[in-house]
Input
Amino acid sequence: MELIFEKSHTGRGLSLLPASDVPEYVLPDEIIRTENPRLPEIAEVDLMRHYQELAERSFSPAKGLCPMGSCTMKYNPQVDELAAELPGFTQIHPLQPKHTTEGCREAEQLLRDYLCAYTGMDGISLQPAAGSHGELAGMLIMKGYHADCGELQRDKILVPDSAHGTNPASAAMAGFRIINIPSTGKGLVDLDALRAAAGEDTAGLMLTNPNTLGLFERDIREITGIVHEAGGLCYYDGANLNAILGAARPGDMGFDIVHLNLHKTFAAPHGGGGPGSGPVGFKEFLADYVPKHLTAFYGNFLVEMKALAYALTIGGDGAYPVAVNAVLNARYMMQQLSDIYVMAGEPCMHEFVISAANLKEECGVTAKDIVKALFDHRMHAPNMYFPLIVEEALMAEPSETESRETLDRAVRILREIYDLARTDPEYLKTAPHTTPVGRPDEVQAAVKPVLKYENRRD
Ligand SMILES: *Cc1c(COP(=O)(O)O)cnc(C)c1O
Output
C-alpha cells in the first residue's frame, strides 16, 4: 500500500474552508514560514479511500475479539461517545472565562464523585493523561509527602515482580530506587520477602492488583499493613479496575493512592495512541501534594465525559456486574482450555496467563507462533511474553463485553492451534497465511528501525 505522501500530486488538493469572513491579521515577519510545509496534496475522494484502506488493514474490537491481557480492549458503548460529542463539551476552550464553563466543571465533579465512590478514595485529580502518567503523579505525591514530613531518607519503592512494567519505570522516573519483591510459587506477593524489605528507607509500595498473572492478592490487608507499619505509603495500580468494580475498593484495602485508566475500564477506546486519561485518587491527608491545573487545564476532557456517561449508565448497581462478567468470562475461557494448555496461577480474575513452554519444548511451537496463527482466524493476539515471570507467556483478557458464543469460538480456535502444533508445527511456524502482512523481519526492525518517511521523489 502506498503512503499518502506517495499519492501526492503537486497542485491537487481540497478546499474545505469557506472564504474568511473575519478581518485578516498580518503576522510579524519573523514568525512567517519561508517555505511551505511538505504536506501531501491529494483529492478528497482519494484521501477518504486512503484512510478507509488503512482502517480495513487494521484490527480492532469493531472487527473481532481482542483479548489483550492488561490492555482491556473491550467494546465501548456508542452512546458514551455520542454524549461526549455534545457541542457543550466539544466547543469549550480551557482559557474561557470560568463562569462560562460551570456546566463542564460540574460534570467533572460528578465524575470525580463516581470515581471516589468506586475506589474508596477522598479525592481524584483528572489531570494525568495516561495510566503511567497517573503513576508518575502518584509517585510525586508520595515524594512530596515524605519530604514535608522530613523523611527524605525514604527513597525506595517496593515493587512485586508481578507488577505491570510501568510501575518500576514510573517510580524510577520520580527518582526512587526500586526494590523487587518476589512472588510465591502461587504467583502472589511473598509476605516474608515484603516484611524483610520494608523499613525506614521505604517510601512506599506499588501494587498492581489483580497482578499481571490475573490474580487477586489475597493477603492484601496484610500487605498494606506491613508497608504502613514501616512508615511507607501504599499505591494501587487500578488500571484494570473492571476486575473489581463494584465488588471491592482499593481505599478499603488500605491504599493511599490509586490510579485508574479511563481508557480501559471506563468506555474510552484504548490503543491508537490516545488520548487517554489516568486519574489519580488519594486519601485526604495527601490533598496538598496532588497535581494542580498546571499543564493540561482540565485533563483530557472528552475522555472524561465518555467515562462520566459510562458511570451514569452503570451507576452504582451496574458496576458489580461489570466485575462479575469480566471475571466470569476469563474463568470460563481458562477452564475450557486448561485441560490442554498450561496455566500460570488460578483462580484468575479478569485475565489468565497461558504458558506455551511445554509446546515449545515438545514441538518447537512458541507463543509467538500461536499468536501469528490467531491472525488467520480474524482474532487479535493476547499479550505475549508478558508477564516476564512466565515463560512463553500468553496473557488473555476476554473482557466483560464478549458473548458466550465469541468466547466459545476463541476456545475452539485455540484448541485447533494446539492440535496443529502437534500434527503440523511447520504450518504454525510460517503463519499467518492470509493477512496483508505475513511475518515482518523483527530482527531487522529492532536493529535497523526505519522511523521516518524519506520523500523518495526528492
Ligand atoms: C495499561 C496499564 C498501565 C499503563 O497505562 P497507560 O495508559 O498505557 O500508560 C499500568 N498498569 C496496568 C496494570 C495496565 O494494565
About this structure: Residues 73 and 271 are 8 Å apart (CA to CA). The chain has 15 helices and eleven strands. The first strand starts at residue 123 and ends at 125. The pocket of pyridoxal-5'-phosphate is lined by residues 70-71, 130-132, 164, 166, 208, 237, 239-240, 261, 276, 278 (CB under 6 Å).
